[in-house]
UniProtKB/TrEMBL annotation:
TM region(s), chain numbering: 34-55, 67-85, 91-111, 131-150, 156-176, 183-201, 221-243, 269-288
Listed name of the protein: Membrane-anchored protein
Region feature Disordered, mapped onto this chain: 389-410
UniProt keyword list: Membrane, Transmembrane, Transmembrane helix
Organism encoding this protein: Streptomyces capoamus
InterPro entries named in the record: DUF347 (IPR007136)
């Protein structure tokens, strides 16, 4: 029987990082461009994931296009699930990381108890492939949580943050070449490709103007351009693999013969190497966390208190984006006045989602204006208990802050 997973070559890792990058950028673009909000974006991609996975599971062998399309979609879906926990439910990233780590251990445990192998070279049955895609989904969610948690701890910029997962993957590769367990090495590297690809995408899409002095700047390509570039690279790579079939593995023999084992002594030494690598990484994060974080600069915080004339803060922003924000604010205000608490809260949450999605494109245009609106946006969200621990305030307070926000936006 043919294997349903491609051969793990350099091409595998290249296209895996490309898929992760385009998944991150494309999700951000859809969330920003369509203004559907984080939860609705997650529902959309969940539905797409179900469809493409159903097609993938029905295939009898590995076919490059449906397989890698599934990887792209699952990368977006897993990332969105973590973002919902963080942004919508206010779950701390360390908790998300712990929960997804336990969940992944459970998936691997059940997979091993049932199939007695976690090797992707033996994904030849429907149960094994189902476990494989479930593990992939959880690895993306875990990679998102741990990657974001790392950035939260260190305050690193996207350019610097690329180096950590890249260095860890290089170290894992060296240990694998030395004699580390190939299955363990594969899944560790697989998890790390998620923060690597996401950080590359953020670095390419983020503005050239550094948030803080001394930070490496982005390339200001934007999420849409970044998505197009990487979709083109993925398509070209998939076409190449389809023509050459260089990543297709015939595994009839592997499925009917006992797997070869490596040198137990080298595996033990490599396992100790993984442990040292984990300790060194933890030490680096602790050290980075203890350093003075160049977070929002004080002068930027002060600009949020600058009093601007009505409409001045959004003068440099695209009219269409301002209109979309004002529409949601007006809807929330109308519902608050009519006593529709649920409608007012929902519209305010959609307004928050759209504002967050537009940050990368609006903030570089006018930082003072953006900070001014952002400060008022935060005051408004606090009255609804959104992104704040306090309970919702009275409708009168909600109306007051919504009116102030609309005034600021002209």
């Amino acid at each position: 029987m043919l294997n349903k997973v491609p051969e793990v070559t350099v091409w595998f890792w290249v296209i895996k990082v490309l898929c992760t990058t385009v998944g991150e950028s494309f999700a951000d673009w859809i969330n920003m461009k369509l203004g559907v909000g984080l939860v609705n974006t997650a529902w959309i991609f969940t539905a797409v994931f179900v469809v493409v996975l159903a097609v993938q599971l029905r295939l009898k062998r590995y076919v490059p296009f449906p397989y890698w399309l599934t990887v792209v979609v699952v990368s977006v879906t897993g990332t969105l699930y973590t973002d919902i926990l963080t942004d919508q439910l206010n779950v701390p990233l360390w908790i998300s990381s712990a929960v997804f780590s336990v969940l992944l251990a459970v998936v691997f445990g059940v997979w091993w108890l049932r199939e007695r192998t976690l090797s992707i070279h033996s994904v030849t049955t429907l149960p094994r492939e189902s476990f494989y895609w479930l593990a992939v989904l959880v690895t993306f969610a875990l990679g998102t949580a741990t990657g974001d948690w790392t950035l939260e701890l260190t305050g690193w910029s996207p350019g610097v943050s690329v180096l950590l997962p890249l260095g860890l993957i290089a170290a894992i590769t060296l240990l694998w070449r030395f004699g580390a367990n190939p299955v363990l090495s594969f899944w560790l590297a697989y998890i790390l490709t998620r923060p690597l690809g996401a950080n590359i995408g953020d670095w390419l899409a983020s503005p050239k103007v550094a948030e803080n002095p001394g930070d490496p700047t982005g390339l200001a390509l934007g999420t849409f351009t970044t998505s197009l570039i990487f979709l083109g690279l993925i398509l070209a790579t998939v076409v190449y693999l389809t023509v050459t079939r260089s990543d297709v593995t015939e595994t009839h023999e592997a499925a009917h013969t006992a797997p070869t084992t490596g040198d137990p002594r080298k595996e033990r030494l490599a396992l100790a190497g993984f442990g040292l690598l984990a300790v060194a990484t933890a030490g680096l994060l602790v050290w980075a966390h203890s350093q003075p974080h160049v977070g929002p600069a004080p002068e930027e915080d002060n600009t949020s208190a600058v009093q601007l004339a009505p409409g001045q803060a959004v003068k440099k922003f695209p009219p269409a984006k301002v209109a979309a924000l004002k529409t949601l604010a007006s809807t929330s205000l109308k519902d608050a006045r009519s006593g529709n608490e649920t409608g007012a809260h929902t519209a305010a949450q959609k307004l928050r989602d759209l504002w967050d999605a537009d940050q990368a494109s609006l903030q570089p245009l006018d930082r003072t204006g953006w900070n001014s609106i952002d400060a008022q946006m935060d005051k408004m969200l606090k009255t609804f208990g959104i992104d704040h621990s306090n309970p919702p305030m009275s409708p009168a307070q909600q109306e007051k802050e919504l009116n102030a926000l609309l005034t600021d936006m002209g």
